[in-house]
Automatic annotation (TrEMBL):
Protein name in UniProt: Glutathione S-transferase
Keyword list, A-Z: Transferase
UniProt entry tagged with the keyword Transferase: yes
Lineage of the species this protein comes from: Eukaryota, Fungi, Fungi incertae sedis, Mucoromycota, Mortierellomycotina
GO MF, any single term: glutathione transferase activity
Pfam families for the chain: GST_C_3
GST N-terminal domain segment(s): 19-101
A GO biological-process term: glutathione metabolic process
Amino acid sequence: MVDSTTSSDTADLVLTKDNTHNLIYFPFHGLAGCIRTTLILSGEPYKFTDVYLADWRALKQLTPFGHVPVLKEETRSGKVLELAEISAIESFLAKRSGLLGNDFWQESLIRMYHSSTHSLFTFLVHSIVQSPNEEDKRTFLKRFKESNLPSWIQAHEKHLKANGSNGHYVGDQLSIADIKTASVIEHLIYLCGNDVQISEEKTPAIMAVKAKLEKDPKYAEWRATEQYQTYTAKNIGFFGF
């Protein structure tokens, strides 16, 4: 159950840097790539609790809205604070880690770019999962690769170039929008296969976001782990990308 108290004590608990962030999600990247990356970059204690499909029916009713991811803030006092919904979790972690820019306008821009990428990738993942059969899935993917994805690429390449193609959407520092895009690029590249739409040659500004994040030692170390590779393999097996 979500703790809805607004006491100052709870607010202090949420902001404490020695909380353990416990992310509950399936054992693939899915829609949790940005959340996992943000947790790893934060330098704060975290753990990933994998939910397997065989156990999901029993666990589903215990989540706030009947789905994952769910983030549990495990405090030193023993109090556990629960947060659901992808955008809410990403916003919460971004606020904690200073990933929302330097002022209100920068924050608004960052949220705009983040929302655009979130909408695209959520639409893709949900449509794949909900496709009733393989024929419908192929039809959707064809339309996605011919319409939705090119529109996203064109817009984001333009905005990133306007910011100097420096690997960031806003200014010259890492934001949750950068992490969101970097976390989905490899899946979009894999999805397109031989129909290359995202590459160093075609979309240098978008690829600069990915390259910039990959220079971070914590992120590079995470991508090299067996756990990350397992998530990647299961992602391809379940979603096809």
